[in-house]
Amino acid sequence: MNSPLVTEILRAATESGASDVILHLGKPAVVRVQGQLVTVQSSPISEDDLDAIWSTCGAAADAVDFDAGMTTPDGTRFRVNLLSQLGTRAAVLRRIRSDVPELGTLGVPVELLQDWASRKSGVIFICGPTSSGKSTTVAAALEWLNSTVARHIVTIEDPVEYVFTPKQAIFTQREVGIDTPSFAEGLRRSLRQNPDVIFLGEIRDATSALTAIQAAETGHLVLSTLHASTCSDVISRLELLFPAEDRESVRKTLAAQLLGVLCQRLLPTREGGRSLACEYFSNFGSSRRIISEGRMEDLQSFISRGDPQTSCSLASAIIALIRNGKIDEETALDNSDNPQELRRTLRGVHSSAPGAGS
Hints:
Blueprint: H1 4-15, E1 20-24, E2 30-33, E3 36-39, H2 47-56, E4 66-71, E5 77-85, E6 88-96, H3 110-117, E7 122-127, H4 134-148, E8 152-157, E9 170-175, H5 183-190, E10 197-200, H6 206-217, E11 221-226, H7 231-240, H8 247-257, E12 258-268, E13 274-282, H9 286-293, H10 296-305, E14 311-312, H11 314-323, H12 329-334, H13 339-351
Parallel strand pairs: 7-11, 7-12, 8-9, 8-10, 10-11
Antiparallel strand pairs: 1-2, 1-6, 2-3, 4-5, 5-6, 12-13, 13-14
């Protein structure tokens, strides 16, 4: 990296625990720390600084919307998006953690995820908005497999984020644009690579979605991510990838192969950090019929009323964080899909608390 300024910004971002670095021509760098944007006290980013990033990423001088990965001199890896905004160049860099965290440290339903990941076949979706920790959750699940069973795990990513050290498992990690031309092609080719487990970094089109489901049908465990805010949204988004005449058939196949869905959000805590709220459900019995018939409103009700060991609504997860003193009610309401319903539920929580009304 032939830019002392950018090198120093990335070093400081790593030391401060920043997740992202945003660089705009002629402006100081901005970093995201614990979900909050902070302007770095530094010189404005120059054309030479951006030239250095373009060169390091192997991008043409006129490239826009270019995705790549890069490693700083101290060994920190970043996922990079080079772009154009208002006719000038800019870059957004996402720091990639080198250490894969343990599942138990993330705030996810550990035993449920381990149960899903230990199956020989089926589809698992890990979902949520950007910067909600989806990749970290998947990596932790794959690392748990790596530590416990002998499996061949193939990953198709854009770019590769966590690089795994084989323990009991063996990994084949492929980067879109370098090792394979697309997610869909990488997934199709992976079926000829003798995999036990396939991680598809993101489902973006009908071809990828259908191939993932078919891979599960033929005896593979498939994990993938989607940008979706609730579990029912996941099914709806997948369905809408297909022409109307194919959706019923896709729903039935998905209903049979889906193991479970986990949707997660990172919420700001009282102490200034962030805490994970998870909505999830394990797919069996009546949920399979609901998905097959496309009754998404009923699926949300199923999640809300189900056994807490196998399902949990986002509202229930948020209320649990309030009860544990992790987040305040204002944060809870800001992050709820139905603030009015949450207010009513919170009134019931307060009225049933010990000493209420005394």
